[in-house]
Amino acid sequence: MHGPASPGWLLVALCAATGAYCLLRMRSSDETQRRAAGDEALMGFGMAVMAVPGSAFTPPAWVWPAYAVLFGGAALRALWVARSGTHHLHHLVGAAAMVYMAAVMTASPTAGHAHGGSGVPLLTGGLLLYFAAYVLVSGVRLLPVAGAAGSAATGSAAAASAPAWGDRPELARACRLSMGIGMLAMLLTI
After folding, report:
1. For the chain, which residues make up each domain, given as ranges?
2. Per-residue pLDDT tens digits for 140-158
3. How large is the C-alpha radius of gyration of the chain?
């Protein structure tokens, strides 16, 4: 991406850590969670590589078209899987945003949007709105529900029934939130 180096490296670290956690979530016993974690790991690592500051590494010209093909395939897979549940539509939008950013980088690898006009292109603006709304909704979903903390059981029976740390839904939501923030930051820089 074309932003300053320090925030770029922070974004790389955030996305790589998120991708690594998603890889660990793939060890879940729940097949649906494993598949979603795999999609999210691909997105996290793809975003980490894309966010490497241009001052540190300038990729060869073939990288961005390869990204477009890779995430185009991920978008097609998300579209296919979305038949079984609408929660996969977010993966479709995320993969399509990656294809879009790769296409922008292919068209203008050093200058971002070089359209000659002022303002934000319509597609970039739409994606920014989507991911801003996604981040806000995801953040609200992470807030504790009143009374949930007081009703938690204590003792070894509660510990035995608690999900494994990789299966905890709040950690998966936090993972998705961090990727949404990362996508928002990346879209702001193109």
Report:
1. 5-62+115-189
2. 988 887 655 545 445 455 5
3. 18
